[in-house]
Amino acid sequence: ELLAQCDPSAEPTAEDREWANMPDVGREVLTPYDPAECLTSTEAVAAFLAEAEATADPAYIEHARDVAARARAMHGLE
C-alpha cells in the first residue's frame, strides 16, 4: 500500500543509492512474527511447550511459557 503511493519516476537520493549499492549482509528485510498467533489449540500449545522443554534451556523455556500464556489469552484457550 505504501509503495503504491510512491512516484516511480522519482530519483533516489544519494543516501538511498549508497544504501542500495552496499553488500547484502545485514540488510535482510524482517517482518514481525508472533508465534502466539499460530498456537490456536491446546494441543498446539502443549506441543510448543514440549519442544521448548526438550531444549533444557531455562531462558528459552521461560520465553516459551510467556508465548504460551499469550496464546491462551489471545485464543481463549484453557
Please describe the structure with a list of short key phrases separated by commas or semicolons.
78 residues, mainly alpha, 3 helices, 50% helix, 0% strand, elongated
* Largest sheet, strands/sense/barrel: none
The ordered H/E elements are: HHH
Number of β-strand runs: 0
Task: State Rg.
Answer: 21 Å
Please indicate the percent range of residues in DSSP E strands (runs of 2 or more): under 5%
Helix content: 40-55%
The stretches of 5 or more residues where confidence is low (pLDDT under 50) are: none
Arithmetic mean pLDDT:
90
Number of helices: 3
Shape designation: elongated
**Structural class by helix and strand composition:** mainly alpha
Query: End-to-end distance, in Å?
Result: 38 Å
Describe the model.
Helix 2 (42-55) packs antiparallel against helix 3 (58-75). The model has no long low-confidence stretch (mean pLDDT 90). It is built from three helices and no strands. The protein has a domain at 33-78. It is an all-alpha fold and 78 residues long. The protein has helices at residues 14-20, 42-55, 58-75. Helices cover 50% and strands 0% of the residues. The radius of gyration is 21 Å and the shape is elongated.
Question: What topology emerges from the helices and strands here?
Answer:
Blueprint: H1 14-20, H2 42-55, H3 58-75
Helix pairs in contact: 2-3
Brief write-up:
Helices cover about 50% and strands about 0% of the residues. By secondary structure, it is mainly α.
